[in-house]
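Sequence only, no structure available. Ideas?
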Amino acid sequence: MGTREPTGPPPPPTVQRLRIRYAKRGRLRFTSHRDIQRAFERALRRAGVPMAFSAGFSPHPKISWAGAAPTGTASEAEYLEIGVTTRLDPAALRVSLDRALPPDLDILEIVEAAGPGSLMDRLEASVWQIELPGVSATNAAAAVEKFLAAESVQVERLTKNGMRSFDARTAVLELSCPENGSNFTSPPCAILRVVVRHSTPAVRPDDVLTGLVTVAGLELPLAAGTEPSGATRPGLGSARVTRLSQGLLGPQDPAEHGATPAVFDPLTPDRNASV
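Reply:
I predicted one. C-alpha cells follow.
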C-alpha cells in the first residue's frame, strides 16, 4: 500500500512574514497563553488576514509564538510571527488587527521579518518590573543586596514532571530597588527592576521572589482573600508583575563587566536599537 497523500492542491506559499509586538494588560494578565492564542486566531480571521497554512492532512495557520509571559503577569512586550499569502502593509494591519482583538490585548508594532533566523533567537533577556504592595523600599533593598551577594540561590518549582530544583541567581543580570518613595506611602510599595537572561529552565519573576524569601527572608504579603497554606513557595502573592521589554542582550557580558545590562529591540535588524 502506497503512502497516503492529501488530496487537492497544495496551500498557497508564504510571501511575507510579519512580526508582531503586543501588550497584555489589565485583567487579561490572568488569561492563559492558550486562550491568548485562541483570541489571536479569531482576530486574524475577523480582520481578514490572508494567512498561510501548513500542508498535510491537518493544515494550521502559520503562527509562531515566542517568549510568552507567565499567567498572572502583565506585559508590554509579547511577540508572535505570522506568515501570509499576500503582501500586507504592516501599519494598516496593526490598525485592523487591534480593532479585532478584545480590550487589554493591544497591538503595539508590526514589522516585516528581515534576514535569516527565528524571532525566538532574538529574545535573549527580559526586563521585569515587580511592585510589592506592603513592602518598604528599605526592606526590599536589603533583601536584594543579600540575593546579589549569593553565589547560588536554589529554588523549587512544580513542573509537569514533578518538583524541580534549580539556581535562580545565575540568570539574574540585574536586580535593583530604585528609590521610589515607597517608604513614605501608606501602605508602602517597593518596586523592583529585574533583568533576567533567558535560560533553561526559564527563571521567572516568581522564582526571583522565592529567592528573595529564601536567601534574605523578605516577607511578602498574601494576595487579598487568601489564607496561609504552609507552602514554602510564595509565588507572586500580592505582587504586580509587568514585563517591560524583552530582546537581544548587549554585545558585552554585563555579569562580567558590572554594567547595567542593555536589552535591544528584537524587531529591528540593528542590534543597538534599545527598548
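Residues 123-224+231-264 form one domain.
Hope that gets you unstuck.
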